[in-house]
Amino acid sequence: MLERLNQAMEHIECRLDQRIDVAELARIAVTSEYHFRRLFSALAGMPLSEYIRRRRLTVAGAEVLAGQRTLLEIAVRYGYTSGEAFARAFRVMHGVGPGEARRSGASLRSQSRLSFRLTVEGSSDMRYRIVEKEEFCVVGRKARVPLVYEGLNPAIAEFIRSLGQETLERIERLSDQEPQGIVSATDNLDPCRTEGSELDYYHGVVAHAAVPVPEDMDALSVPAGTWAVFEYSGPFPEALQHLWRDVYTQWFPSNPYRSRPGPEILRTRLSEDGARADAELWIPVERTPAA
Questions:
Q1: Is residue 35 classed as helix, strand or coil in its secondary structure?
Q2: Judging by beta carbons within 10 Å of its beta carbon (0-12, 13-18, 19+), is residue 207 exposed, middle or buried?
Q3: What is the pTM of this model?
Q4: What's the rounded Cα separation, in Å, for the pair 98 and 77?
């Protein structure tokens, strides 16, 4: 798996001045485009699109300082439709415009090439089970919120507070299958998964596909499929966010599964002081085809 990921990284390097097809990167890595994006984000700590953008601006910066091409030629070579668009992107990364950098020989920032190497990790067990579920729906209330990687998500916390106890009790009574009780479900994320991009957040329950949905509630239909269910107990919320990272950086590379499109579902039960949690994380998966 690591060898194939590194081949995909080399493919990016050879095509920084060309269109980069993510489907081709996924083919090289022998996985789906959806899973490749998710795996890269977890391993690299940044979305794939951000890494490609930063690598292009790194090599473009070297060409700006070299002075052998005009700024417009460099802009077009690295995929920008105008000198102005290139200058804006250049300034965001390097803190200085390309013209000023060329005149003054300014210091520029560099995004190093990524490569993936094996490290000895995974000394602790990850508790999981594989579940086949028929079609179901998530019923509750939905909000469009920003993606936050670390710490509490203020938008989600405010949304939950706004629901009120009576609404939460009405929602919970609709639960009729596992994971039982109130859950959090996230769906419709930006494929790039950039922090601050928006997603659909459902605070609801898992119910039969044909359950009558109250008029004042939202429903997300989920087709039948396979789910990997991870169990967790520990500090909240940091360790839960680390669990998601560990699923992609440790569990997926070690097991014959890959992620597939669908909502991620989290069932959490907090301690009285809110400092710790018992949780189940449900991730939609499919078997990896034989190489």
A1: helix
A2: buried
A3: 0.72
A4: 14
CA-only gyration radius of the chain, Å: 22
State the residue for tokens 């039969």.
208
Under a CB-based contact definition with an 8 Å cutoff, are residues 209 and 105 in contact? no
* Helix 33-44 and helix 48-66, axial crossing angle in degrees, nearest 10: 70
CA distances from 118 to 1, 43, 112, 121, 257 (A): 10, 12, 18, 9, 19
**DSSP state, 290?**
P
Nearest to 224 by CA among 141, 142, 286: 286
pLDDT, one tens digit for every residue, the chain (291 residues): 678 889 999 999 999 999 999 999 999 998 999 889 988 887 887 889 999 999 999 999 999 998 899 999 999 999 999 999 999 999 999 999 999 999 887 789 989 888 877 554 444 456 889 999 999 999 999 999 988 766 678 999 899 999 999 999 999 999 999 999 999 999 988 766 666 778 999 999 999 999 999 999 999 999 999 999 998 888 877 767 778 778 887 788 778 899 999 999 999 888 888 788 888 999 999 998 764
> Is 162 strand, coil or helix?
helix
The residue type of 119 is: T
The dihedral formed by the CA atoms of 50, 55, 56 and 61, expressed in degrees to the nearest 10: 120
Nearest to 184 by CA among 265, 279, 87, 93: 265
> Contact, 193 vs 43, CB < 8 A?
no
